[in-house]
Design brief:
Helix 7 links the parallel strand 5 and strand 6. The protein has 12 helices and 13 strands. The chain is an alpha/beta fold. Helix 3 packs parallel to helix 9, helix 4 crosses helix 5 and helix 6 runs parallel beside helix 7. 38% of the residues lie in helices and 16% in strands.
Length: 359
């Protein structure tokens, strides 16, 4: 008996089909394009984590909500464990919050801002409204408040310090938004370790505030994909319904627990990055044909007189990979460089001088 094979065309949702997949070039001798920690973990700490992973039963699911790590992160942030949800990187945290509190609504965010805010909002079922920063990269608070007033259901996403501009938004500006916002306000603190000033202490004042953290930067755990949300218990209870169970594997859990147990190592790495950030910023400021911007992160935004793609390719030809952000509004001729090791930073500066000297 024969049957005809049906021809079925399966297509993504139109709004997802219009997105571009996240892709970055990764190969270079000096890799300074993804805001990663410039130093890997020491071998003895890696061995400790691997030994702990080996002791775990691999045939069993991990803790449904990373219970031990959730308690450890709560102690780290000085909050109750009911105020923490652990996620597979901060992107899962953003997606979970959008799905829970903004699906069918609007996500408002500044531009320039975190590049994944828009696609994650769309994937989460929300519409998006980008509000242009002011020319000095400050929030246009009035424009954000107008956007909030126009919609009935909204979520506000702010990264402070901001990526890729590197600046922190004044507390008074964020407070003005919190006072008016009708829904959840996310403050992404991915870079807060490099310029302390967290909003965690303000959670008692703002029941609709949610704070994002990541282990990818200061903890040097980009490969483990560990993020977490700190918010009041009702927000956490809601978002945990949207997050998948068993979302963090045993390696990620053990690696994060080991990092939390070595605060002196994390602090030492942060201090070294901040010192190199100062050196790198001073060198860029003194370089002809370059404008660098103040940073409270582990990267520096800079603008050149040449077009950014030309500078990018010339640096890459010299073995140095940075991030071209020049297609973003307000960032014409701008590139972003991650603070690397002292040797990597010197190689970058030498390559940039040579690249600009080509004319």
């Amino acid at each position: 008996m024969s049957s005809l094979r049906r021809q079925v065309e399966v297509r993504p949702r139109p709004e997802i089909e219009s997105l571009s997949a996240y892709r970055l070039r990764r190969e270079a001798a000096v890799k300074l394009n993804q805001n990663e920690s410039p130093q890997d973990w020491p071998p003895n700490l890696k061995a400790e984590v691997l030994a702990r992973v080996a002791e775990r039963a691999w045939n069993r699911y991990p803790s449904v909500d990373s219970e031990e790590l959730r308690r450890a992160l709560a102690r780290y942030c000085d909050v109750d464990a009911s105020m923490v949800a652990v996620t597979n990187g901060s992107n899962e945290a953003i997606l979970g919050l959008v799905e829970t509190y903004a699906g069918g609504g609007v996500v408002v965010f500044p531009n320039p801002g975190y590049s994944m805010a828009r696609p994650l909002a769309i994937v989460g079922g929300a519409s998006v409204e980008a509000v242009l920063l002011r020319p000095d990269f400050a929030l246009d608070v009035a424009a954000i408040l107008r956007a909030i007033e126009r919609v009935e259901r909204s979520l506000i996403f702010l990264a402070s310090p901001n990526n890729p501009t590197g600046n922190r938004f004044p507390r008074s500006d964020i407070e003005a938004i919190l006072e008016v916002a009708k829904g959840v306000v996310i403050v992404d603190e991915a870079y807060v370790s490099f310029a302390p000033g967290s909003w965690v202490s303000e959670l008692s004042r703002y029941p609709h505030l949610a704070i994002l953290r990541t282990a990818s930067k200061a903890f040097a755990l980009a490969g483990a994909r560990v993020g977490w949300i700190v918010a009041n218990a009702p927000i956490i209870a809601g978002v945990r319904k949207a997050l998948p169970p068993y979302n963090l594997n045993v390696f990620a859990q053990e690696a994060a627990l080991a990092a939390l147990a070595r605060p002196e190592l994390v602090s030492e790495r942060i201090q070294g990055i901040v010192r190199e950030r100062t050196r790198l910023g001073n060198a860029l400021a003194a370089m002809g044909g370059v404008t660098s911007y103040p940073s409270e992160t582990n990267f520096i935004l800079f603008r050149t007189e040449l077009t950014a793609p030309v500078v990018f390719e010339r640096l890459l030809a010299r073995g140095v990979l940075v991030r071209d952000v020049s297609t973003t509004p307000l960032l014409e001729r701008c590139l972003r460089v991650t603070v690397g090791t002292p040797d990597e930073n010197t190689q970058f500066l030498d390559a940039l001088r040579a690249s600009l000297g080509e004319g």
